[in-house]
Design a protein that fits this description.
The complex is a heterodimer of chains A (500) and B (435).
Chain A: H1 5-12, H2 15-27, E1 31-47, E2 50-67, E3 73-78, H3 83-99, E4 117-120, H4 133-150, E5 154-171, E6 176-192, E7 199-206, H5 215-234, E8 248-251, H6 252-264, E9 278-279, E10 282-283, E11 294-299, E12 320-324, E13 327-328, H7 338-341, E14 349-350, E15 359-360, E16 364-369, H8 384-393, H9 396-399, E17 403-415, E18 420-432, E19 435-439, E20 443-447, H10 448-454, E21 455-472, E22 475-489, E23 495-497
Parallel strand pairs in A: 4-6, 8-17, 16-22
Antiparallel strand pairs in A: 1-2, 1-5, 2-3, 5-6, 6-7, 8-22, 9-10, 11-12, 11-16, 12-13, 14-15, 17-18, 18-19, 18-20, 20-23, 21-22
Helix pairs in contact in A: 2-3, 4-5
Chain B: H1 4-12, E1 14-15, E2 18-38, E3 41-42, E4 49-63, E5 67-74, H2 75-80, H3 82-91, E6 94-95, H4 116-122, H5 129-142, E7 148-163, E8 168-182, E9 186-192, H6 198-214, E10 225-231, H7 233-248, H8 250-255, E11 277-280, E12 303-307, E13 310-311, H9 318-324, E14 338-341, E15 346-347, H10 348-354, E16 359-365, E17 376-388, E18 391-403, H11 404-409, E19 414-417, E20 425-434
Parallel strand pairs in B: 10-16, 15-19
Antiparallel strand pairs in B: 1-2, 2-3, 2-4, 2-7, 4-5, 5-6, 7-8, 8-9, 10-20, 11-12, 11-14, 12-13, 16-17, 17-18, 18-20, 19-20
Helix pairs in contact in B: 5-6
The chains are: A alpha+beta (500), B alpha+beta (435).
Chain lengths: 500, 435
């Protein structure tokens, strides 16, 4: 595996190139955002005990986003750091921006920014120099055997991916930040073998490739993997749940999905000309959108799967309280959208690659509830019977004798213009005094406002490691977040389980 | 595209005591221009005019000791430091006996994949975007739409497949397309090797606007139940074709993780209704999904995956073809070369008449959250039009649910021809739960 630290050093060696390009841009009356990226990904996949794939990829290059004196922008990118082609690309990009008026491209408004000169390279980056993919494959095979022993009749696929994503962003005003985002994920996908097949997944993440050697992380992974395998085996025989509005309990991964889909995307300020959380292009700060004990916070969390310390425009990323005890407070903004949104700049823009135009995006987003009720132990200690006992002891079953427990997050989607959101779970359990009965998963959908008003109680400490991939305008970036172990929601007509 | 240095490196690299016995490389160099519009703002900083140049080589190496390395390297490594890249590839080598086949020379079919006008746009002559943007803006204004978002693109590329066994094939291609969504509700678009003709573009745009405006009026309240539901071609493309092709993937079949078992292929026992066919034809001129060769150097050809409801072949690259003891098959690259066929498709107006009391689903949310293996679906359908005795009867929001494979085996299933669409719509009987 290619060495990781020289990749950072390579970004450091590009000072002359970036300085030259910035000067040339200034000479032509243009402002330059120069982005250089070096990304190294390695992946190993084991299926049914055999190594099926080991692949590595490297990608590096530079993106030149220019702003003309008239305020028009264009973006050019190239997958190398040669100065000659970069100079030609800069020229072509400036010309494209200058002539874009004929296509109806209007000027944008760029907020004033303080130039930041800083660096954030976590210690875990050094571990990427010592990734042994052969050893990783052997370890995956060991883990597969352990999981398979607990769940016969289930086909398992394990994958391990390391991703070192390093950036340097230089601006015409002298801003210059370098940062590296190390991400490693261990995943399992369990498919039942008999009859109608169902597939259930589980994962753990860590910034270091040494996660395969970390006993605590592996113990958590094995608990999650065994649960996924048992669920895959049980789901084919489970009944479907009828559609409708029900009192619900959701786990922290689904709560992350709720925050992400129901509020996060609609809070991204680039969409405020149509977002349901904006009026006349400005964020509806102060509007009541949820219960007074519920807040939604987005912030970069060190060591997190979606951590990004600086934005793709070289601005330090800040903590944002999107919903503060039921009221809208701050949106996710970037230098282009903050002014129009009537909001402070929070450095929320991210780009998938040097080829991409940055967009306001979430990082780690969570739902917090004031005064959560206790839930002792680890989250993985709670199966459906334990959740039933948890809510029974809190009086929820006295309030609602029939409660639907949605467990595990398998993705979601939103339309920020209409406020329609969906997400799906891995399983449904009906909790009552009779016990916990498994049902097949179903889509959970509704209106964002109904969902946030419906949250009644939170149980347990915050757990923020629900990870995923967020897609927007063709760009995929890592996402993460969570909430308290469990949230209880009152029934709301605008929030429905899909049924079958 | 100069691969000479890479070829020399492949011939001379020794790492960990091993040389490279056989190899296969797919290299592609692409220049692409895109222009986005976000909420009526064309070329905004979030959707700017974007020029992208890229060169990537995907390789598969078979070392002297039988181990295999797979990976991708980009321009810089390819042109300046391939030796280091190949040494790093050795560190990631693994044993996979089914992945060691490397193709030799073959006869490759001809198919038109390059349009000089699309190439000119990709080179910077973006003027053809202007009248299309103007047409969209005119509709938005004249028909009182609140907002629109979308994008236009053109790309020109050159690709080459080289192998150690003497295969060397290359060619140029273009792509061009547009997409637009109105009022944040529903979108349409088109992509092929060249820009859609202006008359066809305007007709598609007008159909889009008509659908979006039909979503403005609410439908009378409806109860839940199993009703006729007409799935728009976009829903069929995004969900039905995706689910079928996912389950036809060689890896899914080989590992027993998909809906179809190896034993079901070629046996004659139907898995879908017996008049259904799923096939791909990558030799259609100027289609987005057309090509002359796969990335492994397999000559392109038409292929039928499902015929008369019976499984004929999975979609197989060289590895899974060898694993399953079957012939490799070119894979679909885009929906416009994929054919879902069956009984004669009924016209859209006739389908509306047959679906009275049901609904037309234009779009669904949550496809990527579904379990494609089981075929169970539970999809939010916020852009749905109720169908009454006199046709479209206002907007519904709801959920559709059922099992895809049951629908594709049902006698109630009908294929529907939508104007201007290649992928058919489907008229099915499934559960609709209005919100």
């Amino acid at each position: 595996m290619a060495s990781a630290l020289p990749a950072i050093d390579e970004l450091d060696r590009l000072t002359d190139l970036s300085t030259d390009l910035a000067h040339r841009a200034t000479g032509r009356g243009a402002y330059l955002f120069w982005r250089a990226q070096v990304r190294r990904v390695a992946r190993a996949v084991v299926k049914s005990g055999n190594v099926e794939e080991v692949a590595t990829s490297t990608a590096s290059g530079q993106g030149l986003q220019v702003v003309t004196e008239e305020g028009r922008t264009a973006l050019g990118s190239r997958d190398d750091f040669s100065s000659g082609p970069a100079t030609e690309l800069l020229s072509a990009t400036i010309e494209a921006a200058t002539s874009a008026g004929s296509l109806g491209v209007g000027p944008g408004s760029l907020a004033a920014m303080e130039p930041v000169v800083a660096r954030a390279v976590p210690d875990a980056v050094g571990d990427f120099d010592r990734v042994d993919l052969a050893a990783a494959c052997a370890r995956l095979c060991e883990l597969e055997r352990e999981i398979a022993a607990a769940a016969p009749g289930v086909t398992l696929t394990l994958s391990f991916q390391t991703d070192l994503d390093a950036w340097r962003i230089v601006r015409s005003d002298g801003g210059d930040v370098t940062f590296a985002m190390p991400r490693c994920v261990l995943r399992v996908s369990a498919s039942s073998s008999a009859g109608a097949r169902h597939t259930v997944g589980a994962s753990v993440a860590d910034p270091s490739p040494r996660l395969l050697e970390d006993a605590a992380t592996i113990a958590t992974f094995l608990r999650r993997a065994r649960a996924a395998a048992r669920l895959a085996a049980d789901l084919p025989d489970a009944p479907s749940h009828p559609a409708g509005s029900f009192p619900l309990v959701i786990d922290y991964a689904l709560a992350k999905g709720l925050a992400h889909e129901a509020f996060g995307h609609a809070s991204e300020a680039d969409g405020f000309r149509s977002s349901i959380l904006a009026r006349g292009g400005r964020f509806r700060a102060g509007d009541v959108v949820g219960a007074p004990h519920v807040s939604i916070v987005d912030e970069p969390v060190a060591g997190d799967h979606a951590w990004q310390p600086f934005s793709a425009t070289g601005v330090r990323r800040e903590r944002v309280t999107i919903v503060d005890r039921g009221r809208l407070r701050d949106p996710l903004t970037d230098p282009w959208s903050a002014g129009a949104a009537g909001a402070r700049m929070t450095g929320a823009d991210r780009a998938e690659s040097f080829r991409s135009a940055p967009l306001p995006r979430m990082t780690n987003i969570r739902i917090e509830v004031d005064d959560p009720l206790p839930a002792r132990g680890e989250f993985e200690d709670y199966g459906p019977e334990e959740v039933r006992e948890l809510i029974r002891s809190a009086g929820v079953l006295r309030r609602h004798p029939y409660v639907v427990f949605l467990s595990g997050y398998s993705g979601g989607q939103v339309n920020p213009a209409t406020g329609d959101f969906v997400f799906n779970c891995k399983s449904i359990y009906v909790l009552s005094d009779k016990g916990a009965v498994l049902h097949k998963p179903a889509i959970f959908s509704g209106s964002m406002f109904g969902a946030l008003h419906a949250i009644r109680e939170g149980f347990g400490p915050l757990r923020l490691d629900a990870l995923g991939t967020c897609g927007k305008w063709g760009q995929n970036v890592p996402s993460s977040g969570g909430s308290h172990y469990f949230l209880a929601l009152e029934p709301d007509e605008s929030v429905r389980l899909g049924g079958r | 595209m100069d691969l000479d240095r890479f070829r020399r490196a492949l011939a001379t690299t020794r790492a960990d005591g091993c040389g490279i016995a056989r190899w296969s490389v797919f290299a592609s160099e692409i220049r692409r221009i895109t222009l986005g519009t976000q909420d009526r703002e064309t070329g905004s900083p979030h959707a700017p005019l974007t020029i992208t140049d890229g060169l990537t080589a995907r390789y598969r190496l078979v070392w002297d000791d039988g181990k295999v390395s797979r990976g991708a390297i980009e321009r810089r490594a390819l042109e300046s430091e391939p030796e280091a890249a190949l040494a790093a590839a050795r560190a990631a080598a693994y044993l996979d006996p089914d992945a060691t086949d490397v193709l030799g020379p073959a006869a490759f079919p001809e198919v038109a994949t390059h349009d000089p006008d699309a190439a000119a746009i990709a080179g910077g002559a973006v003027e053809p975007f202007a009248p299309r943007l103007a047409a969209i803006r005119e509709r938005v204004l004249r028909r009182d739409l609140r907002t629109w978002s979308g994008s236009m693109h053109a790309a020109v590329g050159f690709s080459r497949v080289l192998t150690s066994e003497g295969l060397d094939v290359s060619g140029a291609g273009t792509s061009a397309g547009w997409s637009a969504s109105m009022d944040g509700e529903f979108g349409m678009g088109h992509a092929a090797r060249r820009l859609e003709g202006f008359a066809d573009f305007e007709a598609r745009l007008d159909r889009l606007v008509d659908f979006v405006l039909a979503l403005r009026a609410p439908a009378p309240a409806r109860g839940a139940g199993v009703v006729p539901v007409l799935w728009h071609p976009d829903v069929v493309d995004d969900y039905v074709l995706t689910a079928l092709l996912h389950n036809l993937e060689g890896a899914q079949v080989a590992h027993g993780t998909g809906a179809f078992r190896r034993s079901q292929f070629g046996t004659g026992a139907p898995v879908l209704r017996e008049d259904l066919v799923l096939r791909n034809d990558p030799l259609l001129p100027m289609a987005a999904g057309s090509y002359r060769y796969t990335q492994e150097g397999l000559p392109s050809r038409a292929c039928t995956y499902i015929d008369r409801g019976r499984l004929l072949t999975p979609v197989l690259d060289l590895k899974y073809a060898r694993r399953l003891g079957l012939a490799p098959t070119p894979a679909p690259a885009a929906a416009d070369t994929v054919f879902l066929e069956g009984p004669r498709a009924i016209p859209y107006d006739a389908a509306l008449a047959r679906a009275a009391g049901g609904a037309l689903v234009l779009n669904v949310l949550g496809i990527h959250t579904q379990d494609l293996t089981s075929g169970d679906f539970s999809l939010s359908a916020p852009q749905t039009l109720a169908i009454g005795p006199r046709g479209i009867d206002g907007r519904l929001r709801g959920t559709i649910s059922g099992n895809l494979f049951e629908l594709l085996r049902s006698d109630a299933l009908e294929l529907v021809s939508f104007p201007g669409e290649h992928v058919p719509g489907l008229l099915v009987s499934c559960r609709l739960d209005p919100a």
